[in-house]
Amino acid sequence: MILQRYLNRELVNMTTAIIFILLLIVISNMFVRYLSIVSGGNIEADAIFKMIAVMLPKYIAYLLPISFFFAILLVYGKLFANNELFVAFACGTSWFRLLKIIMIPALSLFIIELILTLFILPKMDQSYFLVQKTTTKNSLISFIQPGKIIPFNDGKQVVYTKSTDRDGDMHDIFIYQKRPDNRSTIITAPTGYAETQTDGNQYLVLENGHYYDVTPGNIVVQKGKFTKATQFLSGKVTLGNNSSIDSVPTSQLIGSNDLQYKAELQWRLSFPIAILISTLIALALCRMRPRQNRYSKIIPAILIFIIYFNFISLSKTWLANGTVPTWIGIWWVHILFGGVMLVILKRYNGKNRYKEVKAL
To answer: Nearest-CA neighbor of 273 among 121, 70, 109, 73?
Structure first.
């Protein structure tokens, strides 16, 4: 019981310190990024703190697994370096006993992460969208986001761009416009950029594109191409719910046959599970020999941790594309890494620990 309280207190203190430092770094970067947006005149200055506050739970959820992972490595590395764990092994403590002790804070973080990823983060994503919408300085252009279809003027005008580079240039632009005479115009262009003139009117300047005039009930389509053209953005942005899948409530994901929804559900569940698996990875890789450097296992552990999360991300893509069946999904990554680490801990959990003590 004394050992359990001591280890858990050290882990909680170290996890808190690490996540506090990481959050300071993330918040500083967010503040600088939003400050540049404010200086460009796109949003109100007081919106910075609102947007950071709304995004904070998301970053906490993302940083919890890695913070707990580093805390285990640092705390147990220090205990090995000070020979405290060797003494505990000599007194009959096993690796599975250590695992049982460490799972108490791990399960607590698992529950917190589960609540965050399944229930809080989708609502926070919607809140961020609303804050962004209500604090924008009447700039229609600022609402154009890569990969999202943005309707203007009650859906009479629709703008889509696939990507935007660092200079603000847009790529693969698609514009649909319904004209007053009930005809429709479709404009496509490989590149373009936004432009606000001195009178306040906002335009998309398109380069080397094509246009198509369509009349309802007529199969004849008038088409042409242009070197440079400007498209006026009129009316207001028609914004309802955020179209991002991140904002879809978990209740809608459960039971859905859509592969995108299935991948998103398993992705959300992967973060709580990752806390448990990263606990096994850190514990299995923190083992040291007497007089070994306490930081010698950090780099190999980080590499395995990165591989683990890259496989999770890759499996999500495979599931969304239909490459792997749902029952395999992302689960195989957790089972593989968790199983390997349990095998390693089982090898440690035996007479090997007494050999380590005799080597002192």
So the answer is: 109
